[in-house]
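Notes continue from the previous slide.

Worked example: a multi-chain complex. Inputs as given:
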Amino acid sequence: MSRSTSLPSRRSILMAGLGAAAVAGLTACSDDGGANNGGGGATGTDGSAVLPTYTPYGGVEPDLAEQEGRTSNAFFAYPSDPGAYSSATPGDGQPITAMVPTAFAIPPTMGQNPFWQELNERLGSELSITATPSAEYDAKFATTVAGDTLPDFFYLGAMQSLPQFMAAKAADLTDHLAGDAINDYPALANLPTASWHQCIFDGRIRAIPIQRGLMAQPAVLVRADLLAAAGITETPESFDDLMALSEQLTGGNTWAWGSFPLPYVRSMLDIPGYWTIEDGEFATNLEDERHQDALEAVRKLQEAGVINPDAAVAPSSTRKDWFGSGTTVLHEDSFVAWFSLYNQHASVEGLDIQALPVIGFDGGTGTQMINKPNVGITAISAAAADRVETLLKVADYHAAPFGSEEYLFVHYGIEGMHYDLDGSDPVVSERASEINIGSIYISDAARAIYSARRQETVQAAYDWQMQVTEKSFVDPTNGLYSETASRQWSALQTGLQSTETDIILGRRPVSDWPAAVEDFLSGGGNQVIDEYKAAHAALES
Amino acid sequence: MSRQRRYRLVNGQPPSSPQMRVLKAVVFTIACALVLVPFVGIVATSLAPAAQVTAAGGLVLWPSSIDLSAYRAILAGGVVTRALGISGIVTILGAALSLTVSSMLAYALTRRALPGRRALTMLLICSLFFSPGMIPTYLVVKQFGMLDSLAALIVPTCLSAFNVIVLRAFFSNLPQDVLEAAQIDGAGEFSLLGRIVLPLSKAALAVIGLFYAVGYWNSFFAALLYLNDTSLWPLQLVLRSYVTNGERIAAADMDSGIVPPQVTLQMAILVISIVPILCVYPFLQRHFAKGALTGAIKG
Amino acid sequence: MSTSPSARSLRRRLPLLLLAAPGVVVLLAFQYYPLLGNVIAFKHYLPFLGIGESEWVGWQNFEVIVNGDHQFVTALTNTLIITLVQVLVVFPIPIALAIALTSLASERIKRIVQSVLYLPHFLSWVIVVGIFQQFLGGSGMLNNFLRSNGYDTFQIIGNADLFIPLLTSQLIWKDAGWATILFLAVLSQIDVQLYEASVVDGAGRARQLWHITLPALKSIAILLLILRLGDALSVGFEQIILQQPAVGLEASEVLDTYVYNNGIVGGNWSEAAAVGLVKGVVSVLLVLGANKVAHMFGEDGLYRS
């Protein structure tokens, strides 16, 4: 049996590539409407002066070491005999409250939940968490704010006039976290600098990042086992190659793509996202003609019938199902889905997932999009300002670095109950869902690439990151705030996206695009750009 | 009874013509098939093994073998079982309260002697079309001190203007001479309602009761907003947390345990949330039997 | 010593007032009192400032409704067309079903059919849309079957021309069975003796239907129709928004989706309240108008003063 696990790292380089499509999917989860809670705080005051000092955790040695902006730390196995990163008990004996979104099934309540009880024990405070299904978090957050009943910790939901909100309701953490002061909280100090930009509002630190780093990049995942079965060994090197490959993969009830790969094609054309930095100034690339080339290219894919005919309606969960069943072979998602899809489709024999490199439209390489590094931010209530030090210690505990004993506990639970050790790797048990109490949205460790007993995938993923970040574009709105965006972004984006879909599906000609861009700009887009421009200039100065 | 009939009447109606009967059989068979095929798919998918569901990339119409892991995953830990109990309590108490309040109001609105009858009717109708919005309602619920109590799931929504209007229409259609006769015999409004109107309106009460019950059973948003204590969460909200639409905001855990496919879980959840309601049907359908009215008036 | 007329009338009225009181209190406390919060339609409401502290902005939030852009007109037109189709096509189906169900001879079959037809009501729109896609979509079971057997496929989902028929069939599939309940309740209250007497008079099924069954259903049907007209501006938001990308906005934009797509929900509380107020006023006017028309035809309609 020629299983396709032989040379994963080589193959990952062979099929390197990118799919920025997942940008939409990713932002759709919690910070729906993009800018609402995605945009951080630079609004004219220089925030960089208060940035915390980054001190990476030195307690463990990664198998593949991170390089800033290129790749995350990667581990082939969980460090053996993990030590505690700190010995102090963070809590003060008083109860602590928190509200967070969750993407998990509701776990047993505190009274029936040994993990929760053990956590309280270790924290030295009773931690009450109200976890809300993520799709409804914004509603819960808005009513809680309106009712003035914010708990000690709150994850930021959508909110207009965010800087004013933060100034009114979130405790000022600057004195505790700015510069070297963060060294009192070594796990928080292990969060990379880029993550903190989003937490600074009018020059003050008012939140803690929930960091995902490079895990949030878009990727085009490939069923390498199906490619091998079809005898395909060549990696596409241009759009024409990609088109040919797509046609080769399509036939009968199978299609190459499960979505319109517009973000990927934009990356191929070096115009990932809508923004650009020109001569140090924030600007948009929407008027660039390459956008029309991208639309034309995806329209051709659609016309060639290589995209699943239900791509426009299918929710992302259905697309994941298609990928698992082999109905589609190329799948746009986030980087981290590489691993979760292995779990989800564990019943598929010989499953081999790889990721495409970002190829250039006419050869060479395209530009990978690097999304904002945080999935969200969590603040401490201004009403709890007198307990800030205790609460920061609790946050610090939850951010315990990968490789520590605390990380193992917070993310995997109690040994013998929620996981068993295979060597040094935790293997989750049926009760593992008990630990999803939402504590990891209070704060979280800096992410590392690690998946128990998947050394080859870890290596391939690390290599892929290294490869695609060779030429990448970091979302410049990280840490920028635009009031107009916070009010109008979703409407503006809907206008553009419906035009994109109309063009791809052949309902409107590509030549309609400039008019749609014009509508976008005059309808508020120009204001958004001006506000980002000012915020960007302030951040850079 | 003068004329001899050669056929048996069904509910007072002569039997349909053969063509009509065939047509009805065909229409109902097709209608039921159109409904049942997807539902067989739902049940089958909830029971199918992961490999089959993954290979199908979606619904399967028949499980290759029975695999209960989706149900096990959902029922583990007792969270769903407790939520089921809470939903049951909320539904029963809520429907009872709603039915009481609504039938009292609906009856009062049928009586000409009610002061301000027209104004109250308009008040009711307008409330159908103006909605107070999520935040103001939350603030009022908070003001009444109902946050974190089951009352918040029942009291604010215990009156549906639509249901009151429909009930009132039913009540007005009752034979008024019966009411008048009772009134002449000295019956007060309470006993008119309790002894005549309600007993004569069993079918209507059953329907409106079902509407209310289904409303309470399906609602999750009130619980989401008003209850911070997850141990009070009703079934629909708990089940909702199992089906995450799209990505996990986590985008984090590369190492989550192996769970049944999302579709399987979703379908198992549907089955769990629909079956209890199905069990209620037979009790309600009793009240739809013909002749209830005739019997009541004669008796 | 005789009681005064007013005291006597109070004695008659008090019980009625007591009966109405709980319902009216709930209505006032949880509908009308929070409705005062709709004052935010004239403010720029920010939850952390509170209703009182938020800034007044006059009619600014209403601009979105009257700016008259092309999209809005499309949305309005589509909404009205869909309402019309639903009133003409969807509305009569449960009535016909209920009549047919009642005429079934076997009580057992009747109950089974009823229970089966109620089922789809309990599925959310996400699931219903998903099921339609799984069966009828371009990569659904039907088309996959046709494709693997070398036949041409049907483009049902994602076909702008078929969008309204698709919406309509989904709605019928989901709710037609459930909607029979009210009519069944009415039918069950018809005095069987009426039918029996008409048979004695030589009436056949058709005449019974025309002279007994339909008149019995008339008042509830008219009532429901008037309420439906009041909702003329709201058509299946969730159902439509889920399927919009496949057919494009031109074919599928309705008022509720227009409001949503223009960012008026989710955070823009004030504009959402403004839209809600306008829709409410329109609905009430429509209902009052429809009610007047019903009165002209000698029907009670929604209420009779």
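Summary box: Chain B has a mean pLDDT of 85. The two ends of chain B are 22 Å apart (CA to CA).
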